[in-house]
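Practice problem: predict the structure.
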Amino acid sequence: MEPACQEWSPGPVDLDRLDRVLAEHAGGGGSLIPVLQHAQDAYGYLPRVVIERIARALGVSPAQVFGVATFYAQFRLKPVGKHVIRVCHGTACHVAGAEKISEAFSRELCVPDGETTPDRLFTLESVACVGCCSLAPVAMVGGETFGRLDGPRVGKVVKDFRKREGA
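Answer:
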């Protein structure tokens, strides 16, 4: 049976947390990256309204803030789930069926690659390599590695994590 898929909406952003971050860095030249880091720690990602507020507070354009946020891989412009699922697509995993594993996770989670589930429990990502070639095809969920995956095992992995979370 296919899981029921639903939409996710971020809702309003509490800018009070950001204002505290900005107050700590008031008047500090070159503080854009630390402000972005603290803002992302506060929200888990950088919502558009946060980028706009940072730009106004630091006296730079939103495009400059966005440029820095997109240049560095550490920053995210979309929320991520509590558990990030990284499906390896390196050579060994590719040959062993990584694409089918990604498709199985996508079906099970009702999200395409690069997206987060509506309950913000999971984010699905394809990655170049996780360094476990002998376990191909492999995925990591948080810090846990799952090797020699197939479709049914993908479903079990997701169900087990949901059970741990009481979902």
